[in-house]
Each structure stands twice: as structure tokens, then as C-alpha cells.
User: Which sequence fits this backbone?
């Protein structure tokens, strides 16, 4: 305690020391005391937070740059084969490092229907084509039961690279790869999109909803040229393999697609 300290400082000093009452004439209330807030200085934590923040910022900046880069490059692709080469040489998505093959869309360049899944699995990664594993075999069966030729459709995924262990792709991975899918749709100019699974539906339709709510009615996708394409979302074949009880609903979705196709033909 020094003589220079003013009464307010002295009071604060007493309060810090744990004194809660005075015995003098002057009540505490008359003296304005700024509340003493004990702030611990979390030195290490501050450093960690700022490092984490810097890393997150750098990561999101890198993702944004990769998205921008993908969008720019896609503009130059005037055909599916040009786009395929471009995707194969694209280095902005780390999934490529762990994948065996780039799995670009497959099918007819002038397809009326584009089927969209999430990402290649182990079989697709090994062979380099979409929907060739168990999910693909189920899709083939449904297509043939619906009287649709696989070779006259175009089948693709949101991601052209398999996420390790088939994990769910991150938002960043989806965002970086989405321009490739959008360019495929813009080049094919299909009449219909059939989207399999919530991940694919949410990404391409830019919504955030469950597949149970998204399926069962016609939605709309607007392509890069402003063309509106009717879109149906439905269960992913992998989900149907795990939940065969849902196959009937999926079948109804395929019938809905067939019905619209025949209605549109008769217009
Ligand atoms: N699941 C998908 O979403 N796509 C494939 O190509 C294979 C399985």
C-alpha cells in the first residue's frame, strides 16, 4: 500500500483481499467501485485458438481457391471427353491422393436422364467406372425392370474420387468437386435428373433435407445456362441393400420418372 493510492484503489485492494464490510461511517454504496473481474490469462490456449483459427482460415481459403480453380477450368471444357481429362489432371482435391482411379461419369453423351450418386466405392475406385459394385448391380436391375437401358443414360457421382474407407465426403470436398458435376449436366443437357441419396440431393439441389422428405415429388435443378431440369430424388441403392423394405418406395420413384417421360413424349 502506498500513500499515492486514492480511496477507490484502497477499497479495491481491500475487496481483493476478501474484505466485504467496513465499520466506518461511509457506506460502500457511496463509493463507485468498478467491479473487479478476475481474468486468468490462458496463455497456451490463446496460442492454440489462434493457431487453430489460422489453420481453419488457411484451409477454407485453400478450399475456396480450389473451388474457384475448378469452376474456371470447367468453363473451358466443351465436351465430356475434355472435361474428363481436366478432372483427371485436377489437383485441388486431396481425395485424389488416396484414390486409385478418377471415376468420371459414364454413359451416353446425349442421355435424357442423368443418374447421380455420391462417390465411388471400392469396386468403382478399382475399375474406374461409376456404379459397378453391389449398388451398381442393384441399380442395373431396377433400370432394366423399369425398361431403361443403362447405356442410353448417363451415370455419375458428386465426387470423382473415393473417400477413404467410403467415409461421408466433407462439405469442402463436395464444394470443390461440384463444378465438375454441374459441367457434366450442362454439357449433356438431359431432360431429367434422378438423384440417389441425401448427400447427392442436398449438394446438387443446394438444400439441406432428409431423403425421406426430398423423395416422392418432382423438384427442379437449374443448370449453368439457366435451363430448368425436372429432378427426382430417391434412395441410394446402397441404402436399399441395407433396407430392402424401402425398395417399394424406390420403385414408385422410378415409376414416377417413367410416367413423366411418357407424359412429356405425348405433349
Ligand atoms: N455409390 C455411389 O454413390 N456411387 C458409385 O459409383 C458407387 C456406389
Assistant:
Amino acid at each position: 500500500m502506498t500513500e499515492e493510492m486514492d480511496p477507490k484503489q484502497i477499497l479495491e485492494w481491500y475487496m481483493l483481499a476478501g474484505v466485504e464490510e467496513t465499520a466506518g461511517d461511509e457506506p460502500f454504496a457511496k463509493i463507485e467501485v468498478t467491479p473487479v473481474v478476475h481474468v486468468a490469462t490462458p496463455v497456451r490456449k490463446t496460442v492454440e485458438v489462434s493457431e487453430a483459427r489460422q489453420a481453419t482460415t488457411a484451409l477454407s481459403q485453400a478450399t475456396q481457391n480450389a473451388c474457384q480453380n475448378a469452376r474456371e477450368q470447367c468453363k473451358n471444357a466443351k465436351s465430356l471427353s475434355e472435361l474428363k481429362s481436366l478432372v483427371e489432371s485436377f489437383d485441388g482435391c486431396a481425395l485424389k491422393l488416396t484414390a486409385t482411379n478418377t471415376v468420371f461419369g459414364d454413359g451416353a453423351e446425349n442421355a435424357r436422364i442423368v443418374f447421380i450418386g455420391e462417390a465411388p466405392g471400392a469396386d468403382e475406385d478399382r475399375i474406374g467406372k461409376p456404379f459397378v459394385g453391389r449398388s451398381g448391380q442393384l441399380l442395373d436391375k431396377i433400370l432394366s425392370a423399369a425398361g431403361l437401358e443403362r447405356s442410353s443414360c448417363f451415370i455419375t457421382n458428386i465426387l470423382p474420387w473415393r473417400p477413404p474407407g467410403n467415409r461421408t465426403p466433407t462439405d469442402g470436398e463436395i464444394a470443390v468437386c461440384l463444378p465438375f458435376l454441374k459441367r457434366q449436366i450442362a454439357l449433356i443437357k438431359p431432360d431429367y435428373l434422378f438423384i440417389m441419396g441425401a448427400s447427392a440431393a442436398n449438394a446438387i439441389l443446394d438444400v439441406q433435407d432428409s431423403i425421406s422428405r426430398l423423395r416422392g415429388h418432382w423438384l427442379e435443378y437449374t443448370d449453368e445456362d439457366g435451363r430448368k431440369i425436372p429432378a427426382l430424388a430417391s434412395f441410394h441403392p446402397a441404402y436399399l441393400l441395407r433396407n430392402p423394405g424401402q425398395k417399394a418406395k424406390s420403385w414408385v420413384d422410378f415409376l414416377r420418372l417413367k410416367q413423366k417421360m411418357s407424359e412429356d413424349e405425348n405433349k
Remarks:
- The longest helix spans residues 43-75.
- Residues 257 and 263 are 10 Å apart (CA to CA).
